[in-house]
Amino acid sequence: MVYIPPMNKAEFITGAARPHDWGPRGTAAATFAGRLTFEDVSLSFGPLPAVSEVSFDLAPGEIVCLLGPSGCGKTTLLRIAAGIERPEAGRVLIDDQEMAGPRHFVPPEKRNIGLMFQDFALFPHMSIIDNVAFGLRGLRRADALKEARQALKRVGLEDYEREYPHRLSGGEQQRVALARAMVPRPQVMLMDEPFSGLDQRLRDSVRAETLALLKETRATAMLVTHDPIEALELADRILLMRRGRLIQAGAPTHMYRHPADAEAARFFCDMNEMTGRVRAGQAETPLGTFAAPGRADGEAVLAMIRPQAFSVAPDGLGPEGFIISSRFIGDATSLNVIFKGLETPIAIRMPAAAAPSRGTSLAFVIDPAQVLLFTADGSTPI
Fold first, then answer.
1. Tens digits of per-residue pLDDT, 86-98?
2. What's the Cα-to-Cα distance from 248 to each of 195, 219, 261, 263, rounded to whole Å?
3. 118 contacts 192 by C-beta, under 8 angstroms
4. Which CATH number characterizes residue 322's domain?
5. Domain shared by 135 and 258, yes or no
């Protein structure tokens, strides 16, 4: 049996579907953004270090993504910022006021932060309006409801204030959770994988609207994600985590173009990898030569080439490859190509209109801007 949620009165009368439009931009209340600082923060669970000597600083109004694979420590850092976990060493400060340290600890409810969980954590026994007003218990009931209604209007759900969470879709519940976190006007907004439970099409639109709302309120925001595309789209700055440590921090363009090591490069993009040797300042590989300034002749290097680096050589000059598969994926085509001197097929991604068909042999040209060189062990960029 398939459960179909009942329509509310307005839907029954008009036959209209649930609205998906968010409220008008520019109507959310602004916050007094705070500065969030971590100083050499460490925490272990038993014998396992969760985070080790992590330091960073979030400027007021900055949107930062903590990025990394599962288990790297990013959610632990968010819980430490929220006050749910207490660090074993180091300090956490908001506007230079110590929230957690060796001798001081401020509980979560006194930190003026907004917290949005991965599963939204709405109270099932409360109406939507009461869920949103929950963090406004210091206000008179009438004032709290007024603020909550304004927040619901901004996320396009003012008509559902008397409904309960189970009556809303996942995307609508996400909006309610966002409104609830933002309505107290927090200095710092913390978001733990807030879009992971949504399907891809809905995720893109909700992500864009959430970014607009964060910019509108000017709140400092720290968002946890394992999705590099999400981090590249949302963040003013990305903090890349690995095994409890902060590996690299920077603007999205810098992180993508200048990864700290080969492992970081792999995290942002699927890569074609091959070894090469340096000769006269050039790394010689089976697919061509690429600048390797300052490296000694004969030194082994690791060359990493992005799939989108390839295009068909207009003059027929370039490494020749045989296309063993061609898969249409919408605006692009994914190719697997065999090149002389390489045992593993090379993955190529190019616009669908320009993609050759399976069984074709032809020459390719490679954009050197899409080629990354590292020392042979992948630890140091060249």
1. 999 999 999 999 9
2. 24, 24, 9, 11
3. yes
4. 2.40.50.140
5. yes
